[in-house]
Amino acid sequence: MDNLEINLKKQIRSKQDLIDYFSSGSKKKKICQIGTEHEKFLFNKITKKPIPFKGKNSVNKIFSKLKNFGWKEVKEGKNVLSLNKGKKNITLEPGLQIELSGATVRNIHETCREINYYLDELKSVCDKFNIGLLGNGFAPTLGFKDVQISPKRRYKIMRKYMPKVDKLGLDMMHRTCATQVNLDFKDEIDYKFKTNLIAKLIPISIALFSNSPFKEGKLNGYLSYRCHVWQNTDHNRSGIPKFFFEKTNSFERYVDYALNVPMYFVIRNTKYYDCTGESFRSFISGNLKKIPRIFPTLGDWQNHISTIFTELRLKKYIEIRSTDSCSFAGICSIPAFWTGILYDEKTLYSAMDFTKNWTYEDIMNAYYDVPKKGLRSMFRGKEIATFAKKILDFSYKGLKNRKIYSNKGNDETIYLNDVFNFIKLKKNPAQILIDKYKKKWNNNLLKIFDEEAY
User: Fold this and answer.
1) CA Rg, the chain, in Å?
2) Residue 104 falls inside a structural domain
3) pLDDT band (50, 70, 90) for residue 438
């Protein structure tokens, strides 16, 4: 999604180098593209337990067979921890959740096509080992003692650090799954408009797509327990930063914010140095305590900003990170929802005008309320479902205006059908799951692995 390639080996000389890093992502007059990332839990179909990294029915076995579809191994030491094919990557999260980071595409039809191909390949391999895939924001039955862990070295550093900063960081790492949308900006002004609007719409996106009402085999009191977990992971690097609502919002302002986020690690010659809690500003000055007289490159900066866990974050594109892992339809409807709002200029400006009086305090109150109450949360004196319907209408119009059709003659609005049904029912995916759990499954949550798996 980059407009200008940056030399990641270049040593950082000044703050302007960091600003230029973000600016290099500007698309200017080129077509803005769409990237989708989605995580799944892997489980043994017989035991309903998570699968291990190595062994008879394991992640290693899945990766070895995926090579038959053209996926290439990526190792860290002796361990195969990811695969790539072209611009697509399959990676493992800390608790062995499996993630596809898709290629950048021009429309939602291409996004869904990519998802179909990936899931067909993955399922055909998993079926050989009696392994299933589940899309849910929080592992519904998994106790922490049963967590399987990835041997990736950066995760070892994070596991040690997380309990020092908040109470649910280890849950975030090992028991959550998300769906993420990556979108481009044309220039800094476009970046300001889009990030301001995205920040305002985060509670609505959570209310619409919540999908994690269970924990350790029972209802957990939330619709998006995953969101609750993220809210209690690390206050230095999560949440919705206030500057997205302010006139000072800019590439430079994001750089200032990122410089204040404590570091995790530095990599030199494949070795990971634990620099948790240290300042990237000190790194620029060559004053890190763990590795003094070493200076950062833009590659180090890229690693550092990947450890920021806010609901939206900046790389050389905008990442929207507010939604739970979900069903197949949700993987398509979430990028469709955001694309319709942000990629049609008329719709973007209309949505900005509609939300112009929404304050940071309004948004934060809703942000902490919707994980429990969903579409029935109160926002500016009304149920948030009222505002969600209006925003969904904007998205529909934006996708309609794009006039991009599939081979069957459908435009991109078809991917919003499920979301309109959520509004009609006033029930998001979590509430639909709760109904099944109480009525159809008779409180037997193991049924989720049979009926909701891919």
Assistant:
1) 21
2) yes
3) very high
